[in-house]
Design brief:
heterodimer, A: 298 residues, two-stranded antiparallel sheet, two-stranded antiparallel ribbon, 4 strands, 5% strand, B: 314 residues
């Protein structure tokens, strides 16, 4: 259950980045998973180059990785997406290219090994279990039902980031500008919103969210140059189920899928579960293109 | 000379050139070119849908895989000969593409790309799931003794090259002919302006459906050809990477041109061949080429030549 929650939390952040980019820019970023990978790999580089307590390296990674990934994304936007005028097909082909460039660059510099990053703190926390025993309600700590403090931290951090993001989108001027651009690009431009700058920032922000999610997960999973594949596919699934471009739907779908992923795998073999999941998603896209939570386009 | 005659001459000339090369090339390049022709057949199949009909699929590996596994499994477990197994492969690919088309064609644009990607992913996972028969990522080898047609040994390099040439020529001539008759013009009409084509009274959905089936079946034929000529069937060929490759080849060679797929495959194959000698991160080259093409040469090599110098190129 808790494993599922950790997965869901990280997935929600990653998918939110993809959803944001698609919502505002109408761009399907196929390289999104690679920004996730980039976050994890940078986290490893930062954590190993800064000595001392693992927490110091982790905090540095948490600060640096999203910024670096975001800057790379801004560069991609400026050099590739903007010149092709955000044409849907060209951007997909272009981001596929970016996918391979980032992935293979990681392979050349970071190498093919999977490497762990030490968590900043990790305490075993036993969870209590209540049961009716001989003398009424008894509380005991069974084996197996335990977690560590870092996993709880990941969930907490993800919720905090999601809330902050939601506040920014709904309450701040930056959010207003992004939503305006999303609704109507032309009108936004007419009102003096620097649309092309907004696009760059949004693309960077999306990549930054993916990198942030990766830094959070990297002490649990290891950093590897091919690790972007699964998050990309899952984020696609989440964004499609949640409705392309709908932020609330994205979060709900991420929780749903992240949690159910673990539960389904208990009953079916993981491969079969994945087959069914991908087919279902394809069918959702065919028969309910607005997503399960999205509104029908007018 | 009319445009039709010119393009027929071009295609026949190309086939004749490839035929002569069979006896001239050193064995290493002869082997490469045989592989390139099979992969170019795959690219030709992809081009029918992407180049002519304007539908960008990210899932063609499932059709390639359907042909490959259709033939491979029929030979391995069904004990069929090459020709009947090839027919099985074509049927597999045609049926799969018809089913996928019925569903995926309900969507357009970005959704179509993602739906095809998802279906292909499901196909890849299916191959892994039935690992007991398909041997998953490891794949299986088709016995050398089985790879024969009427006494012709397809493992012998020159025979293999000529078999690849037959496959490639068939695909090339079929698509070239297809684009000369009205069916092809309707496909281009769908690409250029779907609404207008519908207004003119053409059944757009049926033309798209036919395009997917033709495209999928040619891709399947290429997959089956690859399996029988090189004797190996593996899950890698159904992975996302093999859906991206034909897109890359067609874009590089020139989408919507008859000889573009071969040109693109040829260039990309040797580019990767040379660079894999330098680094193991050879897919980096693929990525860079994709980005450069998107930015500077949206028409591809043959497309740019047609635009600048030779307007009649088919």
């Amino acid at each position: 259950m808790l494993e599922g929650a950790v997965g869901a939390a990280v997935l929600a952040l990653t998918a939110l980045g993809l959803s944001l980019v698609f919502g505002v820019m109408r761009v399907v970023n196929v390289a999104h998973g690679e920004f996730f990978m980039l976050g994890a790999v940078i986290a490893w580089f930062v954590a190993t180059s800064i000595g001392g307590h693992p927490a110091v390296g982790f905090v540095a990674a948490l600060a640096l990785a999203p910024v670096i990934a975001g800057l790379v994304a801004v560069l991609v936007d400026r050099l590739i997406l903007k010149p092709v005028k955000y044409d849907p097909e060209a951007t997909i082909v272009g981001t596929i290219g970016v996918l391979y460039i980032l992935q293979q660059t990681a392979l050349m510099t970071y190498g093919p090994e999977a490497r762990p990053v030490e968590p900043p703190f990790s305490h075993r926390i036993a969870l209590p279990w209540f049961e009716w025993g001989e003398n009424g309600l008894a509380m005991f700590y069974p084996w197996g039902l335990s977690t560590n403090s870092y996993k709880l931290f990941v969930i907490g951090a993800a919720i905090a980031i999601l809330l902050a993001f939601w506040l920014i989108m709904t309450r701040s001027k930056a959010g207003l500008i992004m939503r305006a651009t999303q609704l109507d690009r032309e009108t936004a431009l007419a009102f003096g919103i620097p649309v092309s700058r907004v696009y760059s920032i949004v693309f960077g922000l999306g990549a930054g969210l993916a990198a942030l999610a990766a830094v959070l997960i990297v002490p649990i999973q290891q950093a590897h140059y091919l690790m972007g594949h699964d998050p990309l596919l899952l984020s696609f699934i989440v964004v499609i189920i949640g409705g392309l471009g709908s932020v609330r739907g994205t979060v709900v779908a991420a929780v749903l899928i992240g949690m159910s992923d673990g539960i389904i795998s208990v009953f079916l073999s993981p491969t079969l579960a994945k087959i069914i999941a991908t087919l279902l998603v394809a069918l959702v896209l065919v028969f309910r293109p607005q997503g399960l939570f999205g509104k029908k386009p007018a | 000379m009319s445009i039709g005659t010119r393009s027929t001459l071009l295609h026949l000339g190309l086939i004749a050139l490839l035929f002569v090369l069979a006896f001239v090339l050193p064995s290493y390049h002869q082997g490469n070119l045989a592989r390139i022709m099979v992969l170019a057949t795959y690219a030709i199949g992809y081009n029918v849908l992407f180049g002519y009909t304007g539908l960008l699929s990210l899932g063609h590996a499932m059709f390639f895989g359907a042909g490959m596994y259709g033939l491979g499994l029929a030979m391995q477990y069904g004990g069929l000969g090459v020709i009947p197994a090839f027919v099985v492969a074509l049927i597999c690919a045609a049926v799969l593409s018809a089913v996928v088309a019925m569903l995926a064609l309900r969507t357009i644009g970005v959704a179509f790309m993602i739906v095809t990607l998802m279906f292909a992913q499901a196909g890849y996972l299916t191959v892994l799931y039935f690992g007991a028969w398909t041997r998953g990522d490891e794949g299986f080898v088709i016995a050398q003794s089985a790879r024969q047609i009427a006494g012709l040994d397809l493992t012998q390099p020159t025979t293999r090259y000529l078999a690849a040439l037959v496959l490639f020529s068939a695909a090339l001539l079929i698509t070239a002919r297809m684009m000369q008759v009205s069916f092809g013009s309707v496909l281009i009409g769908v690409r250029e302006n779907e609404e207008r084509t519908r207004m003119l009274g053409y059944d757009v959905f049926r033309h798209k459906l036919a395009a997917v089936i033709i495209s999928g079946t040619i891709s399947g034929a290429a997959g089956a050809g690859y399996a029988v000529l090189f004797g190996y069937v593996g899950a890698t060929f159904t992975s996302v990477q093999y859906s991206i490759f034909p897109l890359l080849w067609v874009l590089l060679g020139g989408a919507g041109t008859t000889i573009g797929p071969l040109v693109g495959t040829l260039f990309m194959f040797y580019l990767i061949d040379y660079s894999s000698g330098l680094t193991n991160a050879y897919m980096l080259i693929a990525g860079v080429v994709l980005v450069l093409l998107t930015l500077f040469a949206r028409l591809g090599l043959v497309g740019e030549i047609r635009k600048r110098w030779v307007a009649w190129l088919p």
